[in-house]
Write a structure and sequence with these properties.
Strand content: 15-25%
Largest sheet: 7 strands, mixed
Shape: globular
Distance between the termini: 62 Å
Radius of gyration: 23 Å
Number of domains: 3
Structural class: alpha/beta
Number of strands: 22
CATH class of the largest domain: Alpha Beta
Oligomer: single chain
């Protein structure tokens, strides 16, 4: 029997981050993983997807190379892209192992099961810890009428786990982030995409109507269209591929199908009841604002406990959980401070509240807007689509949220996130010195526009 201050179950971004933070704070830490180290994010999610997305953006941009005096175009090869992402994943995993070793974190391979709230059985031994963090992540949701079939009906997990199937015509199913990203990525990497869904893409997200319209325009320009009211009724797999039947009686024949219908929390085999841990009707582990479960010494983070289900939220949850293990009650999670990003034909990034959410809280929002089509940096790059929107409280000028659409949105949003939560955030953004020409200048321009339009000059400029 081994004893630790903390045992972390799951090695995805949240679990890895929790183990690192706890070790850096002086705790004796063990981390348990039953599958591939790094979890979904490293092996089958954000890391390999980001590698593919970069390639997809290069290919898309190459269509305009001639106007820049650059000859030739680029062509995608999904199989070669798959092999490339495997190399990236292996390199990141090696770095991961090395850092945990240097921090003295004990790695344990096997399936963890709670014996009680302080004891975990794994790999034929028992691990005792004062605290535990469950970070077991999620797994793909499989619609009843679209069951997995090797080489024919795949989840994103399957796509990254094995070389892509033979065939160029691919149906991407889903209107959420997964579908929106992979419809673009796969199209640029050499497949013919048939994108099927019930509702408008990202219609359940917090992104504004202008943001979603800009994205749809960019997708259309790239030759990708969303077919709404086209939820797949049934799928028949045969020697030629997959025959999909649609609600209007129509059919689509494709070589293979990629499911992007969302994910569900993974708690199978944990025996949470033995530890006194409760779950919601949707299967998420119940946690309070400190990430504590119904068993006070146990915490849960990331996809298994947070319906937002992003690596960004898992990383933020990890910090909250570890801080509260070190100093109980010292830290509470706030999902509005966590950036969200969509990587598609245009990048979409946001943080904080949108106008609807602000009004629902009884606030009166004011908006500042500026477009990249007047940005010298964006024009020089030949990529001037998109905009910056800043949302503030009308009475006080307090920053409530922001949305960035366009190239490098996922990086630019950190400038706003850095100040988010400060009462004088907009004042600080307006007082910063900016590089010129740079896309980041549009954050300043949007802030100044907001101040001028809504009579907030005194509050923002002092």
């Amino acid at each position: 029997m081994q004893s630790f201050d903390l045992v972390v179950i799951g090695s995805g971004p949240g679990g890895y981050r929790a183990a690192v933070l706890a070790a850096l704070r002086g705790l004796r830490v063990a981390i348990v993983e039953k599958g591939e180290w790094g979890g979904c994010c490293l092996n089958r999610g954000c890391v390999p997807k980001k590698a593919w997305y970069h390639s997809a953006r290069l290919i898309c941009a190459s269509r305009g190379f001639a106007t820049r005096g650059i000859e030739g175009t680029l062509r995608g090869d999904l199989s070669r892209a798959w092999r490339h992402q495997r190399e990236i994943v292996a390199q990141v995993r090696a770095n991961y192992y090395d850092y945990l070793k240097r921090l003295g974190v004990r790695r344990i391979e096997g399936t963890a099961r709670f014996v009680d709230r302080r004891t975990v059985a794994v790999a034929g031994e028992r691990v005792v810890a004062d605290h535990a963090i469950v970070a077991t992540g999620s797994e793909p949701f499989i619609p009843a009428n679209l069951q997995r079939c090797r080489g024919r009906i795949l989840t994103t997990d399957d796509l990254f786990n094995a070389e892509p199937p033979v065939g160029k015509r691919v149906a991407v199913v889903g209107s959420g982030v997964i579908g929106t990203e992979f419809a673009f990525i796969l199209s640029m990497l050499g497949t013919e995409v048939v994108w099927l869904m019930q509702r408008e893409p990202l219609s359940r997200s917090a992104y504004s109507v202008p943001a979603r319209k800009a994205l749809m325009a960019a997708l259309a320009e790239a030759g990708i269209s969303a077919r709404t009211a086209s939820r797949v009724v049934s799928a028949a797999v045969d020697g030629q591929g997959v025959l999909l039947r649609l609600p209007d009686g129509g059919q689509e024949r494709v070589d293979w199908v990629l499911l992007g219908a969302g994910r569900v929390p993974h708690t199978v085999t944990l025996d949470l009841a033995a530890a006194g841990v409760g779950t919601t009707t949707d299967g998420f582990i119940q946690v309070d604002s400190c990430q504590r479960t119904s068993a006070p010494s146990l915490y849960a983070i990331g996809d298994v406990a947070n319906p937002a289900m992003t690596s960004n939220h898992a990383l933020a949850d990890a910090a909250v959980a570890v801080n509260n293990i070190i100093a109980p009650g010292s830290c509470r999670h706030d999902d509005t401070t966590v950036p969200q990003v969509v990587y598609s034909a245009l990048e979409l990034a946001r943080v904080g509240l949108n106008e609807d959410a602000a009004e629902a809280r009884g606030l009166e929002p004011a908006v500042g807007f500026t477009a990249f089509d007047s940005s010298p940096a964006a024009l020089g790059e030949g990529d001037a689509s998109g905009f910056v929107r800043i949302v503030a409280e009308m009475d006080t000028g307090r920053l409530l949220g922001a949305e960035i659409v366009g190239a490098e949105a996922g990086e630019l949003v950190h400038l706003i996130g850095l100040e988010f939560g400060s009462e004088d955030a907009l004042r600080r953004l307006a007082a910063m010195a900016y590089n010129h020409p740079a896309r980041a200048e549009e954050i300043l321009n949007a802030t100044e526009t907001l101040a001028a339009r809504w009579g907030l000059k005194q509050r923002i400029f002092g």
